[in-house]
Amino acid sequence: MKERIQELIKHIEEVKLKTSEEAEQFRLKFLSKKGEISTLVENFREIAADQKRETGQILNQLKQLAQQKWQEAQQLSDSTKKQSNKSAVDYTLPSEPQFSGARHPLSIVENEIIQILSKLGFVYAEGPEIEDDWHNFSALNFPPNHPARDMQDTFFIDEEIALRTHTSSVQVRLMETQKPPIRAIMPGRVYRNEAISARANCFFHQVEGIYIDKGVSFTDLKQTLYYFVQQLFGEDIQVRFRPSFFPFTEPSAEMDISCQLCKGKGCNVCKQTGWLEILGCGMIDPNVLKASGIDPEEYSGFAFGMGIERIAMLKYDVKDLRTYFTNDTRFLSQFRNY
Ligand code: DAH
Q1: Does residue 221 lie within any of the structural domains?
Q2: Quick one: pLDDT at residue 337?
Q3: Closest ligand 1 atom, CA of 306?
């Protein structure tokens, strides 16, 4: 028995286990219940007592050696498994999508409006969002007790200072600082004290436009705005002007465009009328020119103002105004290609 054990020790020392299959075969052959070492242990009981000590020692040695060999082989195959897992990455798979940002629909529409009107010579201008009573109301010919000055509409900061309720305030700033001819568009954020709903918000965006020169007439106003909506919505659009009232224009009008969804036939969006209101406009009231130091005997001009949210709603069929401001990427990502 001793010889057999020594033979095995020698054999196991020399054995090289390269694969997991070889390691498994090794385990079955030597270390399993029916393996050679178990058989030797069983036979060990029957050997003569004086042999036991010495044989026991080498048998233990054999057992440890075999176990060590098998463990080493296993560690090795574990790490090769990990390595082969690494190289099992399929580099031909499509990569994780990386989403780029999208322009906000209000910016898209604002940029488009600026671009169209700049072709007609309108230049870009800005004014402050915190305004005084003069620029927001008085210089625009609002009588002292006009309802638009009321606390319900306007966010007052103190008696004379408020968040501007419209971009018309920027008209005044331009007229005060520039000499005609003035041709400008003034986009920006405006604020009104309104309950937030699908159709109203406490802040929104407008674009204001003015053209002041010698001999500017209502015909210029109509043609400018007609060109503008044709560029914005398509050549087949129809427009109509309805008489209206604004303190700062005389005469005043509101412009409607033919509903693009039903092509004028009448639908839910245009409330069965075939028309959609998109802006207010008019000839600048002589009082407004005078208040800003422009002689109404020498110059005349037109003005218009429109809500960007409303135009974007019509262009992109947005049903609820609040979706512009909740930063939901499912909404915003739709504008990636614009
Ligand atoms: N400021 C008006 C508003 O907030 C819009 C407006 C109407 C502007 C007529 C104009 C205009 O310049 O001529 O509703």
Answers
A1: yes
A2: 74
A3: 5
For the chain, where are the E strands, in sequence order? Answer: 123-124, 130-132, 161-163, 182-191, 203-213, 239-246, 249-258, 275-284, 300-307
pLDDT at site 85: 61
- The separation between CA 206 and the C-alpha centre of its own chain, rounded to angstroms, equals 21
In this structure, the residues whose C-beta lies within 6 A of any atom of ligand 1 are 166, 168, 208, 246, 249, 280-282, 303-305
- pLDDT value, residue 266: 87
Tell whether 161 and 33 lie within a shared domain: no
pLDDT of 197-253, one tens digit each?
A: 888 899 999 999 999 999 999 999 999 999 999 999 999 999 999 999 999 999 999
Domain presence at residue 88: no
Please indicate, yes or no, whether residues 125 and 53 belong to a single structural domain of this protein.
Answer: no
pLDDT-flagged residues of the chain (< 70)? 80-86, 151
Domain match, 161 and 201 both: yes
Q: Do 11 and 152 fall into the same domain? A: no
Say if residue 43 is in the same domain as residue 189: no
| Residue 94, domain member (yes or no) | no
Chain centroid to CA 304: how far? 30
114 & 156 share domain = yes
Cα-Cα-Cα-Cα torsion 47, 51, 57, 63, nearest 10 degrees, comes to: -20
Query: Which ligand 1 atom is the nearest neighbour of the CA of 302?
Result: 13
| Domain containing residue 221: CATH number | 3.30.930.10
Residue 306 CA to ligand 1 centre (angstroms)? 7
Query: Residue for token digits 């909506």?
Result: 229
Return the pLDDT at 192. 95
